Fold Carbohydrate ABC transporter substrate-binding protein, CUT1 family.
Amino acid sequence: MRRLRAPLLGAAVAATLAVTGCGVGSGDSGGSSDNMTMTVWTTNPDQLKLLNDLTAEFSKTHGGGKVEIQSIPQADYLTKISIRLSGGTPPDLGWMGAPDAVGMAKNGQLVDLGPQLKDDASYQFDDFVPASFTNWQSGDQVWGVPFSTSPFFTIYNKDLLAKAGAQDPAKLAATGGWTWQALSDLGRKVQPTLPTGSYAFQSNDGGIYGKLVWTTLEPLIRAYGGKVFDPDTGQCQLNSPESVAAIQAYRAMAFTDKTAVPPGNEADFFAGKAAVTFTQTSRLSQLKGAGFDWGVAPLPAGPGGPVNFTGQAGLVAFKGGKHEKLATELVKYLSGKEGTQKLASFFPPARKSVLAEAEQIYAQGPLPKDAIDPVLVSSIEKGYPFRYPSAWPEVLQTSAPVFDKLWAQNANAQDVMNDLCQQLDPLLKRDVAGS
């Protein structure tokens, strides 16, 4: 069995923390007027200690003022930050998920970090993987710096696959043979050997029929050569032949082969109820004590080629904070090479120079050593995140009932996607110049 050691991305714990150092406070407060405030959503004590240590070092060379790190539960994070922004008492800097940062940048709520980062040769802005700034840069303006660029990848139950005599996905991937067709074939071979209530494939976090539809659907569509929308024209592409072919391939697994968990059912990979799923490094801690052997492989490729897909969170400085200039300097400090090296023990980096040290950094991490380069490093270097439109909340609200129609057994995928694109086009075109 693959043994877990130090987690690459520590899972949040439910306990209330009180960490000494630069101070950890409640996210409900604006903090002391003399302190710079930084909001995060982690409650992991090791992560908070590292952040306190880093900000303490920063303070020594920047006037000695304290940095108060405020931990806000992730479920409440966006709401509480939005309230503080609208009330004119924003934190100075903080973590922000990519979709929310795009909307905030559009609304003028984030500081442009571009001049500070790009004009300082020692910062080495070009050390970042270019695609990592897909959602954080607009022209010369930089609205945030990704501190966590976490790739999605395949994880599989070796015991269940071996029992069925199915091929190992990592070995298939090594020769270019790990594709959606191979996953479909594997599913048909494995499913008859599974107990009732188990399935060959579970979508990412089992969420394809709900709010997490995009983390499985987007890499699937890309593998078939499609895309969600064209950022240059703002035109929805979910009804293109490539995108519809991808959706039909998944529907065949769910409704025809019955190898993918169907709507209304659950089968948790981490409980041994599914043979294959997609995940990120932060979820590997759930395998501690798992009663089965497991392995990892890249995401499956398709007719459109290989797919490398990443999720992101970034460091931003909030417009209207009491210490805008100093907050920008702290973002710069934390995302510089030295800060990135230290944070990389928890958060997959987008700096190429730090990725070059990945085998050393993650030698004691949860990923098998032979997967660090092909699964982690390669996926970040070649990967691209989901491109979020500024109207993302409205896109989610509009698409949810339409996706419900898509997952009906007798649905016509082309018709449903035509309907969805007709509704999404006006929202997507808002970000196109001249619209």
User: Anything to note?
Assistant: The chain has two domains: 24-151+311-385, 153-279. The domain at 24-151+311-385 is CATH 3.40.190.10 (D-Maltodextrin-Binding Protein; domain 2). Residues 147 and 314 are 5 Å apart (CA to CA). Confidence is low (pLDDT under 50) at residues 1-27.
